[in-house]
Write a structure and sequence with these properties.
The chain is mainly α. Helix content is about 40%, strand content about 0%. Bound molecules: heme C.
């Protein structure tokens, strides 16, 4: 059972990697780990869906905002999160598919 879960996770990771032609240079799996480790998920949701902070996924823009946030968000210096790690997190956020349009969800249209 454990092996099946592991195999499924790896397959999903590979799918997430292959599905996006314009991935930034970062590493999706590392980015996900960093996103969780550094607490981004606490405000932006575990898959970047948003929470206290705005939705972040799917995202193509740079994450430079984290260096000097203008509002409620705490700053992340290069010491805490080097640029390479930001690229990994960006790759992770980009690998998350956009949610379906509300119009495509039949019952919500009635
Ligand atoms: C304590 C809550 C909190 C944490 C932790 C946090 N954020 Fe934020 N973030 C916010 C809020 C709130 C905003 C909205 C602007 C503001 O108030 O600064 C924001 C805004 C942003 C934006 C700009 C959004 C846009 O649409 O341009 C980015 C990018 C971002 N956060 C990335 C991150 C990343 C990456 C991490 C982890 C390294 C992180 N945030 C951790 C609360 C948080």
């Amino acid at each position: 059972m454990k092996n099946m879960i592991l195999a499924a996770s790896i397959a999903l990771l590979l799918l997430a990697k292959g599905a996006h032609a314009q991935q930034p240079p970062g590493d999706v799996a590392k980015g996900k780990a960093l996103y969780m480790k550094n607490g981004c998920y606490e405000c932006h949701g575990t898959v970047g869906q948003g929470g206290t902070g705005p939705r972040l996924a799917p995202r193509t823009a740079s994450l430079a905002y984290v260096r000097k946030p203008a509002g409620q968000m705490p700053p992340y210096t290069p010491k805490v999160m080097p640029d390479a790690e930001l690229l990994d997190v960006q790759a992770y956020l980009m690998s998350i598919p956009a949610p379906p349009a509300v119009k495509s969800l039949g019952i919500l249209n009635q």
